[in-house]
Task: inverse folding
């Protein structure tokens, strides 16, 4: 057989190489910018981490102030060192454990002395990798990581005093610590600290690629000569190399023991191949990021120059604001498609920074009881910012990371078994009790409703009931009165509303488990939101002394709400939107209320709390209670306004800049909203199967599901003009689609959802679409009556009224302190009060009775 000519062989080689290249995954890591969110109040960090990793190896540039929560702030130009644990986007500082800092010259132990300046031009970051240059020492620093190991590469100038400072006092209050020199290549240690987590334990084991010639350990910054191990609350050390050139440090951590840290280190980084660890980290990230493949997303430069039309419904213009028509002038040329993809994939990256794996490679971890346990058949996680992440982060992971979601739930149940309570905000074997509600419940229920069921559902249900039936944080008042009373309990309105949503979730779980009695009980509790709604003002208000807290201003940020005001909580009824619509006076009134939310000129109290940000009217996207509100227009006759405002939020509250987040990232929630909304759908009530249709931001976005199927969203209009923000038509699997929602199964079964968009709202089209459902129709409660009185105290006789948001209910009352019933006085007209009186009232309809409303009016 004659050999093929060389030119033919070359052609075949080129063809095979091209075909092989075409089959490779797109590199999504190159369009992730870890610096997004490190400015403003995003509170993210830029360092090296793998998806959901235990180690977050990142620079620490800030030690105090609210914007030090992640240890790093974008505009800082001094770095104190590189620690191994960090929190992503929280509003409270913690972590930053076990700080390493390379230096030269005589070792210094005060952080202001060993710190170094650095320049932004020398700083770079990508998923799994970070680098910078320490100007003071002329040292190049590179960082990468595996799940449980941080790897440092330091390139020193020529020097006989090349140091690494290990600071165990850095950042928060130390309860105990120790460090020990094992040999001239290895050290190990321990740090126990108190901050947001009351008692956090971190063990570490470090190995170095070259032997250090000497070392020293300090206690209270005093060098202790001849000591190879020291213990105390202010322990630091240095190791010193003689002209090493490059030194690689690999550091394993563990919550269990130094031996556990060593096992993690040897299992995950057996050698000193920095580039391999970096490459493996990049591969892990690319595998995760490629679960959603987004293409296009913006028009070409010429299309950007066209004016954006004024919305005929609201007068809002997507570029300039209300009632201002822009002139057709040339705009700066920006690759909008690339900018949007950078923002999108960085958001997806942020969604995968937390929760964090917490068990060692052998399955051992420190539990909520501070004892050592072994995770059998699952990975145990910590850092659950559940008040935030139940809203969008976990529904997103239910679509693209179901196996990990199952591990989350098994972690919840382990926490319940060890600590007696489902987690609220667990951090490193500690329950911080931060934020309100019991929002591991919607995470469990949403997963179970969507087919993630390989866990003990009966135990989970028992744990849910135990969580909401304890006497803590106003839950006793909630059960006794049908509302958390403001007397003696702060954030009472927010707690009532969020407890009611959790109870609705328990009701759904009860229904799925065929527990009829429990379903009846909890579906009634899910309606307790009605007892916080004041139909006289149209807002959710605090219940005080049988009536409403006064004076009342819905823009005021008070202790009655959680990081919000009444505007932001008056729509917090995702489980019964149609019930809220009815309470507010049907669709037209509800739509008008939403319009007022987004368009009010009132700026009152917008500076009272930095956590509340991202303002559009009184909508505040920078904090989570607002996140579902733009989608509520789908329940009105103007669903085009959902498209309008979702599009506006995407463009105004996110960008590809360091301050590109309008508020705290909150462990993925801020970014998950962007990811879900960019795909074109959003689940406003986890535990319910409907995803609200919004406006897809990419020409094509494919979700690669774990079942092997693909769900693709198409919007060709996204690539034509930025002004194409309104739905004109929809197809699902090539057939005309006429619903304002997608069912979970529509997505999970795979398929193609195509939307057609245009520059003007198509009211005729959207009004004919089937609206989503969110309504409680069974076991309806009778809302509590309330007292309307001029004041709590009086000198002259006063008249009081008794009212109820259910206008057809009859109100019975007593004035002698006795319990009212159907035989008590029927209210028919204002009641004259001339002496100190205890009023008790109930509302009754069709034989059903409300809770007793109690007020005391005192004569001075």
Result:
């Amino acid at each position: 057989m004659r050999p093929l000519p060389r030119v033919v062989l070359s052609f075949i080689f080129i063809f095979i190489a091209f075909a092989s290249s075409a089959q490779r995954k797109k590199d999504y890591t190159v369009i992730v910018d870890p610096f997004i969110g490190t400015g403003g109040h995003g509170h993210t960090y830029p360092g090296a981490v793998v998806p959901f990793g235990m180690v977050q190896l990142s620079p620490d540039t800030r030690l105090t102030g609210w914007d030090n929560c992640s240890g790093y702030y974008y505009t800082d130009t001094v770095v104190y060192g590189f620690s191994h644990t960090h929190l992503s986007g929280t509003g409270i500082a913690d972590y930053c454990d076990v700080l390493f800092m390379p230096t030269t010259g005589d070792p210094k132990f005060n952080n202001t002395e060993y710190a170094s300046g650095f320049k932004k031009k020398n700083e770079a970051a990508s998923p799994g990798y970070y680098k910078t240059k320490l100007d003071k020492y002329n040292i190049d620093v590179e960082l990468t990581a595996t799940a449980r190991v941080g790897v440092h590469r330091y390139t020193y100038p020529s020097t006989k005093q090349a140091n690494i400072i290990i600071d165990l006092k850095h950042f928060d209050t130390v309860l105990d610590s120790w460090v020990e020199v094992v040999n001239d290549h290895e050290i190990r240690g321990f740090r126990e600290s108190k901050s947001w987590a009351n008692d956090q334990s971190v063990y570490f084991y470090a190995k170095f690629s070259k032997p250090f010639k000497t070392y020293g350990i300090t206690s209270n910054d005093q060098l202790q000569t001849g000591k190879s191990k020291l213990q105390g609350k202010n322990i630091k050390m240095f190791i010193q190399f003689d002209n090493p050139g490059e030194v690689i440090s690999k550091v394993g951590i563990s919550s269990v023991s130094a031996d556990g840290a060593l096992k993690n280190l040897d299992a995950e980084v057996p050698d000193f191949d920095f580039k391999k660890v970096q490459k493996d980290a990049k591969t892990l990230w690319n595998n995760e990021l490629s679960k959603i493949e987004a293409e296009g997303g913006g028009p070409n430069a010429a299309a950007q120059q066209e004016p954006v039309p004024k919305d005929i419904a609201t007068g809002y213009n997507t570029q300039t604001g209300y009632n201002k028509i822009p002139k057709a002038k040339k705009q700066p040329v920006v690759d909008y498609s690339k900018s949007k993809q950078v923002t999108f994939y960085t958001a997806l990256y942020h969604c995968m920074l937390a929760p964090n794996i917490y068990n060692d490679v052998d399955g051992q971890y420190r539990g909520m009881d501070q004892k050592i346990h072994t995770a059998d058949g699952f990975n145990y996680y910590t850092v659950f910012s559940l008040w935030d992440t139940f809203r969008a982060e976990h529904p997103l992971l239910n679509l693209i990371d179901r196996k990990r979601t199952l591990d989350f739930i098994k972690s919840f149940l382990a926490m319940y078994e060890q600590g007696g309570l489902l987690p609220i905000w667990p951090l490193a074997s500690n329950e911080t009790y931060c934020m309100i509600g019991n929002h591991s419940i919607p995470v469990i229920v949403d997963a179970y409703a969507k087919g993630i069921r390989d866990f003990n559902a009966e135990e989970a249900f028992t744990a849910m009931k135990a969580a909401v039936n304890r006497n803590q944080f106003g839950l006793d008042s909630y059960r006794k009165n049908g509302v958390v009373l403001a007397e003696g309990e702060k954030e009472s309105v927010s707690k009532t509303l969020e407890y009611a949503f959790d109870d609705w979730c328990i009701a759904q779980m009860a229904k799925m488990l065929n527990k009829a009695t429990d379903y009846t009980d909890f579906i009634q509790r899910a309606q307790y939101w009605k007892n916080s709604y004041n139909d006289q003002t149209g807002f959710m208000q605090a219940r005080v002394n049988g009536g409403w807290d006064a004076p009342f201003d819905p823009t005021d940020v008070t202790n009655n709400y959680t990081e919000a005001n009444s505007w932001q909580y008056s729509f917090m009824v995702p489980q019964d939107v149609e019930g809220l619509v009815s309470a507010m006076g049907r669709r037209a009134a509800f739509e008008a209320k939403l319009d007022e939310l987004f368009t009010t000129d009132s700026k009152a109290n917008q500076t009272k709390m930095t956590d509340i940000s991202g303002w559009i009217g009184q909508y505040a996207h920078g904090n989570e209670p607002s996140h579902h509100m733009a989608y509520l227009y789908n329940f009105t006759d103007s669903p085009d306004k959902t498209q309008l405002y979702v599009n506006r939020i995407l463009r105004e509250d996110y960008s590809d800049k360091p301050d590109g987040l309008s508020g705290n990232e909150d462990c993925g929630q801020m970014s998950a909203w962007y990811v879900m909304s960019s795909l074109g759908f959003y689940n406003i009530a986890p535990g319910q199967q409907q995803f609200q249709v919004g406006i897809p931001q990419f020409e094509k976005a494919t979700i690669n599901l774990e079942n092997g199927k693909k769900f693709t969203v198409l919007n060709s209009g996204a690539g034509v003009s930025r002004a194409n923000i309104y739905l004109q038509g929809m197809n699902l699997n090539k057939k005309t689609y006429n619903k304002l929602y997608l069912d979970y199964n529509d997505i999970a079964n795979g398929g193609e959802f195509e939307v057609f968009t245009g520059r003007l709202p198509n009211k005729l089209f959207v009004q004919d679409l089937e609206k989503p459902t969110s309504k409680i129709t069974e076991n309806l409660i009778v809302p509590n009556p309330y007292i309307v009185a001029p004041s709590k105290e009086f000198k002259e006789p006063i008249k009081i009224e008794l009212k109820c948001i259910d206008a057809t209910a009859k109100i019975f009352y007593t004035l002698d302190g006795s319990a009212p019933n159907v035989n008590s006085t029927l209210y028919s007209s204002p009641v004259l009060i001339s002496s100190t009186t205890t009023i008790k009232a109930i509302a009754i309809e069709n034989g059903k009775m409300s809770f007793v409303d109690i007020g005391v009016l005192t004569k001075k």
Observations:
- The radius of gyration is 30 Å.
- Confidence is low (pLDDT under 50) at residues 6-23, 300-334.
- The first strand starts at residue 58 and ends at 60.
- The chain is about 25% helix and 25% strand.
